Structures are given as structure tokens and as C-alpha cells.
Amino acid sequence: MNLERDLQDMREYYRSGKTKEASWRKLQLQRLKAFLKEKERDIYRALNQDLGKHHVEAFRDEIGVLQKSINFALQNLKEWMSSKKAKLPAVAVLSYAEIVPEPLGLVLIISSWNFPIGLSLEPLIGAIAAGNTVVLKPSELASASSSLLANALPTYIDSKAIKVIEGGPAVGEHLLQQKWDKIFFTGSTRVGRMVMSAAVKHLTPITLELGGKCPAIIDSLTSSWDKEAAVKRIIVSKYGPCAGQACIAIDYLLVEEKFTSTLVELLKVHIKKMLGENPRKSNSIARIINKHHFSRLKNLLNDPMVKDSIVYGGSVDEANLFIEPTVLVDPPLQAAIMTEEIFGPLLPIITLKRIEDSIDFINSRPKPLVIYAFTKNERLQRRMVSETSSGSIVFNDAVIQFVADTLPFGGIGESGIGSYHGKFSFDAFSHHKPVVRRSYLSEIWFRFPPWNNYKLQL
Ligand code: NAD
């Protein structure tokens, strides 16, 4: 394969205007849907091979979400593509303006391994809807999913306009050296910085969907119904999405001291209800992606500073890349488990004197992708919204914001730049071009020199 020649061909194809046609965009989205339907079993197999994901979890988090997103794009494509009339100032009498969305051209999507199908195809939906030609590089770490995309996708969609290129960091770096009209990257903050430096050369616009530590604040809930609902939602948002290997998974909890023991007991009860007495035997929790990440998580647990904080779980099984859902109370804040993104099924609980102290706690750290807060205290909710900064904020649940087509999904500060989903995906891959049409029948005469004070008085 000659990358430079392929990209040249893709640019020429883009210039032919084919990908700008509404019928082409619609057809590609329909073909993407057919890929998900007809290859459903192959996708489940690949996700199970890569991550030990149960097919129900794979449907919930990847195939089902993608089907919904494609349907939403198909329903709204005409409206998104239409130009919008814009008002002009009164002086521009007999002039007309509109905002015309145009595709950016040839775009690069680099994705990560934790939702290897979902996080590859979700931005692709936006790129196609907006009328671009696309190179997609999935993560080499989810190799079964990556090869499924590379081998099967071209048989469904227009392979002159959309190419899947497989490979790891070396291929990624080679791709970043090329000229793109947009780079959409999902991955770590470390590689996100490299993407941003590479984009400088051609002033390429970027979207960076990055990670970080997402805190969840748990107020001392009083009703047993609320407590139970909150704990179940916390468990499914920590151990549920890919065994915690998710950018929007809860990273750690902030709890008032007086509520800690109740919370820990409830967590124990409900973890057992969802994953059984011996979660190692459960197929309802994904496995760690590879040995490198397994060792990274094991080291977080074996840290001598942390060992005494484990109150539940803590066992590991290297042969099966399994890490038991684990709860820790008050590991030292300087320990790696509290300074690095965990990205796995380890849940530290940090106790605070007053729940309001969580605001300072969060504000003294990098801006998170999401803040979750389980509280019915409206004053505290208002303070959280106005006094903290994060990609998004969710009260009394977690992770569900990801599936809303009507909300922009993205980070802020070190958790990312830009956003996507629904119309925001279309916008991420479009330029909104103002088009102004003037008439010759009127004139703004005071815009022309020579200058005199009379012209200022008008
Ligand atoms: P990563 O940064 O290691 O890799 C992401 C992608 O970049 C992969 O395709 C990889 O091959 C490629 N890559 C790696 N090194 C590269 C280089 N030098 N040049 C060019 N490309 C390179 O991240 P990961 O391990 O795949 O994913 C985990 C991270 O991603 C976590 O921090 C997580 O929070 C974040 N994440 C964020 C989102 C989001 O939507 N915000 C979603 C999933 C994951």
C-alpha cells in the first residue's frame, strides 16, 4: 500500500463531488447499518476475543448505540445539510445571507481499544453525514475488532471514500505526518498532545476525545430506595462498561465520612447480586485488554501505600486477565491510584468531612471529562454546576449521557477539545460557510472615502 498515493486518490475522489451528494451520504449510513446487522455475530465474537465482553454488554454499549446514532443521522440528514437563512444589519438592505454547511474534505479518525467498534464508527457516522472522505485507524490493541473493521467494512461502504488502515503507534505517527482537513482522535491525553503538535504543521482542526479521572460525589442519601438506586448505578458505571476501562466510567467516589460504612456495605451486597459470589467465574464483567494494562492495574493495587485501604475484592488472575471488582477506602491521595486515570475495576472511596468539600477537591485537579453527583440537594447541584468545570455533569446517574444524541459529548482542558454525537458530530466534520448575496440596487454610501464628519453623524 502506498499511503501518499491512496490519499491523493481520495482527495481526487472528494473533488469529484460524489461524497457531497445527499444520496451518497444516505446510502453509506444505510450500508453501515447493514454491516452492524449482518456482521452482528462477528462483532460479538471480536469483542469477546479482544475484551471478554458479553454480547449483551456489547449490544448495549456498541452495536445498539451505533444503530440509534445512524437512525438519528438518517432522520435528520436533510435538515443538517440544508443551508440556514441569516439576518443581516438594516444597512445591508436588499442583501441576503445564508449559512451553508460544507464538508471539510479528507479527514483522519484515530480510535481507542475499549469500545473498538463503537468509538471507530460513532465519529465515522458524523464524518459521512457531513460528506467527507475518511481514513479510520482503529486501535491495534483490540486486534480482532480492528481486523474485522478493516476486512468487512470495505465490502459494505464506498471504499474509494472510506478506508480502514490498521496499525499501532508507528502507523499512527506516519498518518499524523500527512496533510488532513481534520483529525478526530479518541485516546490518551499523552497521545492527544502528539496529535495536537502534528496538527500545528498544517493548522489542521482537531477534536480530541481524551480521558482523565471522573469523580462521583455521593451525598448522604436518606431513603433506602435512593441509596439502593444510587449504588446500583454506581456499580454499573464503574465495573459495567468494559470492566471500568471506559473514559466516562466513575474513577473514584467522594463521600461524607458518616455515610462511608453504609455505602461500602451496600456496594458489597449489590456487586455480589450483579456478578455473583465469585466474579472470576462471571461472564458479565469484561477482561483487561492485555498483560501490560493488567500489570499496570495490579501495580496500582500492590502499591504498599494502598494495600491496607482495600475493603473488598483485590484478587487478580493473570492467566485470564481478570481483576476482581475492588473497593478501597481512603488510599493516600499521593498514591498512583489517586493521581493516574485508573481505567479498570478498582474503586477508591475518598472520605470528606462535608460533602460540600468535594467542590474544592475537584477544582484542585485537572478538569474531568464528567462529574457525577448523587445528591437531591438542589443548592449543592446548583453550586456544582456553577463552581466546577468539566466536559459534562450528571446528577443521580452515570454514563447514560453518552447515548443522548441531543447532547454534545466531549471534554474540556486535559479531558479534551471539541465534541460530537448527533448534530454535534455533523458539525465536528463540517465548515459552516456564510454566503452573502448583495444587490446592486442599494448602496451604503458612507462606507466610501473621502471621510468627513458628516458621515460619522449618520
Ligand atoms: P492511546 O492514546 O494509547 O491510543 C489511542 C490511539 O492512538 C490508538 O489507535 C493508538 O494506536 C494510537 N496511537 C498510539 N500512539 C500513537 C502515536 N505515537 N501516534 C499516533 N497514534 C498513536 O489510548 P488508548 O490506550 O487506546 O485509550 C485509553 C485512553 O483513551 C484513556 O485515557 C481513555 O480515557 C481515553 N478514552 C477517551 C474516550 C473519550 O471519548 N473521551 C473514549 C475512550 C478512551
UniProtKB/TrEMBL annotation:
<feature type="active site">
    <location>
        <position position="209"/>
    </location>
</feature>
<dbReference type="GO" id="GO:0004029">
    <property type="term" value="F:aldehyde dehydrogenase (NAD+) activity"/>
</dbReference>
<keyword id="KW-0520">NAD</keyword>
<protein>
    <recommendedName>
        <fullName>Aldehyde dehydrogenase</fullName>
    </recommendedName>
</protein>
<dbReference type="InterPro" id="IPR016161">
    <property type="entry name" value="Ald_DH/histidinol_DH"/>
</dbReference>
<dbReference type="InterPro" id="IPR015590">
    <property type="entry name" value="Aldehyde_DH_dom"/>
</dbReference>
<feature type="domain" description="Aldehyde dehydrogenase">
    <location>
        <begin position="10"/>
        <end position="433"/>
    </location>
</feature>
<dbReference type="Pfam" id="PF00171">
    <property type="entry name" value="Aldedh"/>
</dbReference>
<dbReference type="GO" id="GO:0009414">
    <property type="term" value="P:response to water deprivation"/>
</dbReference>
<dbReference type="InterPro" id="IPR016162">
    <property type="entry name" value="Ald_DH_N"/>
</dbReference>
<dbReference type="InterPro" id="IPR016163">
    <property type="entry name" value="Ald_DH_C"/>
</dbReference>
<dbReference type="GO" id="GO:0009737">
    <property type="term" value="P:response to abscisic acid"/>
</dbReference>
<comment type="similarity">
    <text>Belongs to the aldehyde dehydrogenase family.</text>
</comment>
<feature type="active site">
    <location>
        <position position="247"/>
    </location>
</feature>
<keyword id="KW-0560">Oxidoreductase</keyword>
<dbReference type="InterPro" id="IPR012394">
    <property type="entry name" value="Aldehyde_DH_NAD(P)"/>
</dbReference>
<dbReference type="GO" id="GO:0006081">
    <property type="term" value="P:aldehyde metabolic process"/>
</dbReference>
<dbReference type="GO" id="GO:0005737">
    <property type="term" value="C:cytoplasm"/>
</dbReference>
